[in-house]
Specification:
Blueprint (H helix, E strand, L loop, with lengths): L2 H11 L5 H28 L4 H21 L2 H9 L1 H4 L2 H14 L5 H8 L5 H22 L1
Helix pairs in contact: 2-3, 3-6, 6-7
């Protein structure tokens, strides 16, 4: 079988991906997550929380909720349908840390949860730390 014939066969047999539906779901769910964050911010304002503290509370609350929903198995079900709508906001980061930990929790707290918690997010954190450190050095010596 030639490569072109194989590609044509794969195209015929593969299920069609509803791109428009996925795009709309990602937009709606991502927007809902952002609206939830704005709602938390408005509650903070109504309670008289300072601007500085509000900037800390909102991401922490979103991360906590995403981690809790991941631990309960709900976040992955939402993400299955919403795709990038759940992975792009800060909630995707929380999911990336908690999901591997939950998969290995039966192996114990140290060798299971601790060793696997940063499996997916570890390289991202290492890269981010390295880039921020490099930027800090450049800023200190050249841009001050």
């Amino acid at each position: 079988m030639e490569h072109e014939q194989y590609q044509e066969l794969v195209k015929q047999v593969s299920p069609k991906t509803p791109h428009a539906k996925r795009l709309v779901l990602a937009f709606v769910v991502g927007g809902a997550i952002c609206a939830l964050g704005e709602g938390i911010a408005q509650v903070c304002i109504a309670l008289g929380v300072s601007q500085q503290h509000k900037r800390i509370i909102v991401p922490c609350a979103l991360i906590f909720l995403a981690a809790l929903l991941t631990a309960l198995g709900v976040f992955d079900k939402i993400g299955k349908h919403a795709g990038a709508g759940t992975s792009v906001p800060i909630t995707g980061f929380a999911n990336a840390i908690v999901a591997p930990a939950m998969e290995h929790h039966r192996e114990g707290l140290v060798l299971g949860v601790g060793a696997n918690m940063f499996r997916l997010a570890g390289p991202v954190l290492a890269f981010g730390t390295a880039v921020c450190s490099l930027y800090g050095v450049i800023y200190f010596f050249f841009l001050r």
